[in-house]
Amino acid sequence: MDSTPERSRTATWAGVGLAALVLLFLGSTAWDVLVAGRPDPAQARLDAFRFERASVPAPPLELQGVDGKPVSLAALRGQVVFVNFWATWCPPCREEMPTMVELGKRLAERHPGKFTMVAVSVDDGWEPVREYLHAPPFFGPERTGLKVALDQDQQVTQAWYCAARGGDCPPLKFPESYIVDREGRLVSYVVGPRDWSNPAALAFLESLVGS
Description:
Number of helices: 6
Low-confidence stretches: 1-5, 7-36
CATH topology of the largest domain: Glutaredoxin
CATH class of the largest domain: Alpha Beta
Helix content: 40-55%
Radius of gyration: 25 Å
């Protein structure tokens, strides 16, 4: 007996079953993202980068800059501001600085007047800061695009560290970076060094600049 029609029906039902499984998977994924509130891949990348959430008024920041001019957070109101606390004696700070500088340049070029990056050193004085910034790969603080400031007594640093944590003030560690939105609110912070060339960093900051 010719079993071709039977094989055809079997193949057809197998195809239907496979299609049903694919639709079930796609439907489940859509449910996860749209209904169940589970993160999509872009959100997962942000979570993996570990932007800690915050929502408090940014503490004051009034410090002397490397060029002798004041660095003031209040003067930057209306911009998204990235504030990094670091030191030349901190190896992880030095390691992350090149990619951080490139991220800052990219955002400033793409969004002129809407983004500023501030680097607050907690060194004991200006000499090691200037020495570090005049060496490769920067060849001068003016080429970094950063507003470089000095917080020698670390009082400003301590205020930011505690504010981000809702008043909890564990011992200071470096580096740490803080994100201030256009309304002057501290909305996020990053504990420890990062590779700032990670696309998640650019995506998150651009979402704030464009919001």
